[in-house]
Amino acid sequence: MTTDPAPRCPFQSSERKTAFGSEHSPGVELQGNVWHLRSYAAVKQVLRDSERVRQGATTDNVLVTRLRPAVIFQDGEEHREQRTAIARFFTPKTVQDKHHAFIDHLTERLIVRLLRAGQADLSDLSMELSVEVAARVVGLTDSLQPGMDRRIDELLSGSDISGAAGAGPLVRLRSAVTQSRGLLRMSSFYRIDVRPAIQARRKKPQEDVISHLLGKGYNDLEILVECLTYATAGMVTTREFIGVAAWHLLENGGLRGQYLAGDRTERHRILHEILRLEPVASTLWRKAAEDVTLEQGGAAHHIPAGARMILDIRTANADASAVGEEPLTLCPHRALSGGVQAQALSFGDGVHRCPGAFLAIHESDVFLHRLLSLPLRVVGTPELTFNELLMSYEIRDLLVEVQQ
Question: Transmembrane stretches, by residue range (predicted)?
Answer without folding.
Answer: none
